[in-house]
């Protein structure tokens, strides 16, 4: 009897796996047309200085409002784009869209603004990666300092030397680099050692445990101290509670990004934020 049910189970999973694979293909195909159909757009989440509570910049985050599937999370569709050839096209669109927005803000008098964009390792692997970033900056007429690049440590080790060369070239140009989702991967310290980061973003999963896990809180304190020793800034991501904010303030975390200050905003509301928050 056990054998039979085991067999049925196997068949069940096989069918489910086929259905999942089919869904994935359909979703990817839909994503292929999302740019042309204007279903993709960016929102901008404010970053606030911890001590002075000033707005210092934003992170651009991609959104997909699909006519077929409704709202799809980037955590869901970015991996699909990365598995196909789509990430180049989408990533380039994100880059230009962000640079044009920065240019508009500069024209409106918001000098010194920075906006961070997330870059996939597939994009870095592209041989034209550095030139593409350079072109986006030049053709939109912004300064390299206005653009920040967020990289996660999901970069594969084999491509680390290549990434090192390219990211160093960007840093040389004056583009700031952030290490995203710090603490979640397996090779954080190697990345810190080899790549020219200007700031380090502590992943939300660490921020979540500040108030409940004494060791977790101590790890955060140590990360901040280590980053400062290496002349890097620290951004805490996903800060939601007063208790988290107080801990991060007391332990000299430099910048806060989280719902406690603001969710990601439309261009319109990002401007509103610039007008109402002390900016600097
Ligand atoms: P990420 O780069 O680590 O972005 C931070 C995520 O945390 C965002 O999720 C943001 O909305 C969310 N977040 C920020 N503060 C809070 C908070 O206080 N509470 C909660 N619950 N969440 C908060 P989002 O927008 O869903 O993006 C998920 C991930 O998708 C990003 O993680 C990033 O890895 C990826 N992603 C988003 N846009 C792009 C893009 O344009 N290109 C690439 N390659 N990846 C992107
Ligand atoms: Mg990010
Ligand atoms: Mg992150
Ligand atoms: Mg992430």
Automatic annotation (TrEMBL):
Taxonomic superkingdom: Bacteria
Q: What is the covered span of the full protein? A: 451 to 730 of 730
This protein is called what?
A: Diguanylate cyclase (GGDEF)-like protein
EAL domain location is 24-278
Q: Which organism is this entry from? A: Pectinatus cerevisiiphilus
């Amino acid at each position: 009897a056990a054998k039979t049910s085991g067999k049925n189970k196997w068949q069940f999973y096989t069918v489910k796996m086929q259905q999942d694979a089919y869904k994935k293909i359909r979703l990817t195909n839909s994503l292929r047309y999302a740019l042309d159909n204007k279903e993709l757009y960016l929102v901008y989440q404010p970053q606030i200085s911890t001590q002075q509570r000033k707005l210092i910049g934003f992170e651009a985050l991609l959104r997909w409002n699909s006519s077929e599937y409704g709202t799809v999370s980037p955590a869901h569709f970015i991996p699909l784009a990365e598995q196909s050839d789509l990430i180049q096209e989408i990533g380039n669109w994100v880059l230009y869209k962000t640079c044009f927005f920065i240019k508009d803000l500069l024209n409106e008098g918001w000098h010194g603004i920075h906006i961070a964009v997330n870059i996939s390792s597939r994009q870095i692997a592209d041989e034209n990666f550095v030139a593409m970033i350079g072109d986006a900056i030049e053709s939109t007429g912004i300064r390299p300092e206005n653009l920040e690049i967020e990289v996660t440590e999901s970069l594969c080790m084999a491509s680390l030397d290549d990434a090192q060369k390219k990211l160093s070239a960007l840093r040389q140009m004056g583009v700031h680099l952030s290490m995203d989702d710090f603490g979640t991967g397996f090779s954080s310290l190697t990345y810190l050692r080899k790549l020219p980061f200007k700031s380090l973003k502590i992943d939300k999963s660490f921020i979540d445990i500040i108030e409940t896990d004494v060791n977790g809180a101590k790890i955060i304190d140590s990360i901040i101290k280590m980053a400062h020793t290496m002349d890097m800034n620290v951004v805490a991501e996903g800060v939601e509670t007063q208790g988290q904010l107080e801990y991060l303030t007391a332990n000299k975390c430099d910048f806060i990004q989280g719902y406690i200050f603001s969710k990601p905003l439309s261009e319109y509301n990002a401007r509103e934020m610039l007008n109402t928050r002390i900016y600097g």
